[in-house]
Amino acid sequence: MKITVLGRGNAGCLTALYYSYYTRNQKDIHIELIHDPDIPPEKVGQATVLEPPGLLWKALGINWYDNPIDATPKLGILYENWGKKNHKFFHPFPLNDITLHYTPSKLQDVILESEYFNVEEKHINDYNQIDSDFIFDCRGRHTNKQDDYYNLINPVNSVLLGESNSKECDINWTRAVATPDGWTFVIPKTTQNTSYGYLYNDKITSIEEASANFEKLFDFSKGEIEKKTSLKFNNYIAKRPIIDDRIILGGNRLFFLEPLEATAIQAYLFWAQRTFWWIIDKRSNPNFATQELYKYTTQLQNFILWHYVFGSKYNTPFWRYAQEFTINDDEFHKIVFAIKKFSLIDIIDDRIDIGVSPHGYGQWMPWSFKNWYEGMKNDKS
Q1: Are 163 and 228 in contact (CB under 8 A)?
Q2: Most buried of 4, 141, 152, 198 (most Cβ within 10 A)?
Q3: DSSP readout, 307-342?
């Protein structure tokens, strides 16, 4: 069996690493990654949740001393100005777990040099150029046709990006700072750089107004932060994630959801696992993998949407708009109802049945719902 991954972005590299690591002793399975050298890697700092560091450790031996990707520790997310009761609240990882912030190009280079799979530099115009049994197309969103995608519900659709040449305040967590126009991520992506992303809705806030607010809130006058670029985006999921039982879409060609809670990297591994069950383990099928994907991405959408529905300290057009959204999922509301009846300690204790699935919702366990709810709830909750 031959499997080809197209694209050297996060999704492409992690998919190739996942498949090649877990099939490394199966001599009849060959993995290759093909990428266009003229397409540069993403420069914006990014972050993970719990599963990706585990794969990097198992497959590559990366640790906090032997750290070729120059990652920084991520111990959780500090929410600032969200909710109407607590204007600073920490959404942690368990004390015995740690994730990371990183520069995508460094992570990708290390994976591409791992020798787990073959790497070829080549521009691909047509799938017929590839003689593989399965193709993962992870080449990004640049050829997306809107009719091929369903919209995911989210109130932001634009971002201004910035960077400073220092690790801000030596923090070891992502900062998610609510603003009048949406929110800003602050990611210490290496020990020498911090990435900033000012997310907003361009139908509510003009790019000129968003840019002025970005500069004012983060004090660009000191000259420490440099604006890099601006981007518009849709939040979406492919209508056909698997085409002809052979072509599997991945990364931004598969779906995109804005970066609050850093869900993307673990979602790529979730999709790699579900397709692995079908392609390698032969215990699933394309329809089951697709339904699992839709359920999972809907849960990602809903948990993130919950943040906006809670509101922030700002009473502005954006936040009034964001708070009009509703979450239509009985499983979500069942978890929220359950966590109100139990203490955080009891919810963390897996010997206690709180009446909801212990396997979690999307990327979050019930204790995370409790922790976030208690920290962010307003006086009307």
Answers
A1: yes
A2: 198
A3: HHHH-BS--SHHHHHHTT-----HHHHHHHHHHTTS
Residue 366 belongs to what H/E stretch? helix 366-376
Provide the phi-psi class of 81: left if phi over 0, else alpha when psi is between -120 and 50, else beta: left
pLDDT at 377: 74
Q: Are 9 and 251 in contact (CB under 8 A)?
A: yes
Order of strands, sheet of 30-35, starting from the edge strand that comes earlier in the sequence: 118-121, 30-35, 2-6, 134-137, 247-249, 242-243
Residue 168, pLDDT score: 59
Backbone angles phi, psi at 219, to 5 degrees: 50, 65
Give tens-digit pLDDT for 152-185. Answer: 999 999 999 988 876 655 678 999 999 999 999 9
Strands 2-6 and 134-137: parallel
At residue 219, the pLDDT reads 75
- Tell me, what's the pLDDT at 50? 86
Helix, strand, or coil here: 185?
strand
User: Which residues in the chain land under pLDDT 50?
Assistant: 379-381
Are 57 and 104 spatial neighbours (Cβ–Cβ below 8 Å)? Answer: no
CA atoms within 13 A on the CB side of 213: 20
Q: What is the pLDDT of residue 165?
A: 74
**Closest Cα to residue 49, out of 7, 89, 91?**
91
